[in-house]
Amino acid sequence: MQQKFQETWRRASTTGKHAATFLRPRRTIVLLICAILALYLLYKVPSKSVPLESADSLLPPYDPSDTKDNIAFEHGKPKLQLLIPATSSNPELCKALLTSSILGYEAPVLINWGKIFADTNVNYNGTKLGKITGVLKYLESKQPDLDHRLVAIVDGYDTWFQLRPEVFASRYGAINRGLQDVTHVRIGPRAVEQEGLSQKIIFAADKRCGPNKGYETKVLCYAQPESPLPRYTYGLGTDVLDSEKKLPLKFRPRYLNSGFIAGPGKELLSLFRQAQSKIQLIKHNGSDQHIFNEIYGEQEYQRAVMRHRLETTRELFVNLFKRLFGMTGPSALDRNPSHIPMKWHDGHPLEFGIGLDYWLQLSHTAVLSEWDGRYLTFNGSQDEAGAESPRDLQISDDILDSAAPYEVLSKHDDQLSNTSWTDIPLYTNLWTGSIPVSMHMNGFEAMREAIWHDMWYHSRMRELLRGRSDTSEIGAFADTGEWLPWDTLCRGTEKEVFRDSLGPWSVSAEI
To answer: pLDDT digits over 154-167, tens only?
Structure first.
């Protein structure tokens, strides 16, 4: 039966230059009859199912200016637990700790803290693959406490936070619902319902499949679906390689980036167990992102298999007609001489509920997007940078409804504590219109150094840390449970972190 499904799909999925095979004279009459029948079924026969559509026809999964939402968990709205893989401290790690602290996030847990990875074999790169083994060990040690908590895993040496944890939680819920809707369109509600598919884990989105090159023919790259962002997000040059730099600068984010991961602890535990199992099974060049790309690509390939296996007779004819006339987008199952297929599975053994943050609402991936964002204010004043955007840029309600940016200074500066989010410069993507919760500064190092002082809190970081220290300690936990105060972690980094000449920061020094 599986071979029959596969052969039927290969014949039906043939497009482009292969379509000539279907249009031989001896088959013309049969094809015309199929086309007429498909048209009749498509336009005359009502159906509650959703036909397969191209990514271009998909509406955005949600309005980026309307993200006010509640996180969808069975046990209410949980607190956010930050996990940061880091073996030692430096100024970049301290920027991540500082920005999360002043915005009100709980103290993060440093995964693999103090650990030395002696194995220098690139295929077992401890600083990358240790992220998988270290996070897995921690999640297993915290069962079942973290099962229903929202857990976020971020790269520690190039991540800055910009917005509060309540905005994070709100967007996590909104993005998941939007991605669930997109899944219904892509593979059909029948497959979603019968297989019990549920969107739970969100990764950051990237413009290219990486970091390893030469895998375009493998499932880990070609099976990742097209971006649901509008077809002309970057104008007429959208998805066209830059002619000068030969880089995908105007590509819509489509591929998984493992620098940001968020989901319930229980689901993340299953995902990281799968990731660890692949360390010894596949060639990954020491890259955790390569492994997660393969897991996501396999999930999406098998989702296409589910759709084909569970589509109705009506859907089969309709989709056949659409494919013959180029009315639908590509599928992971399309016949392509350069694509290496994988085994078809029954059920959903490779399903992990993974989706991507296409709109860059939770994490802005900087690589290949260094020129996509600007610092903008939203108080009605003219801004030349904002004028570059084709979108009507607005600040979203979830930001406005969160605590004011300087609210922790109410005891020290009443006037400053009343400053609104519309009065401060926020890093904004000009093309998606998103104001990200966090920024993954994995692009040019020179850019990361140049714009650090432009973050809205930079000129008052010492005051904000002092205000936050009134209600909580400043620092992080090692994954062993040891408390690591700010002075232990970050003394000696002040010149780069604060960029002033006031020396070390401590609670006593600020009183």
So the answer is: 999 999 999 999 99
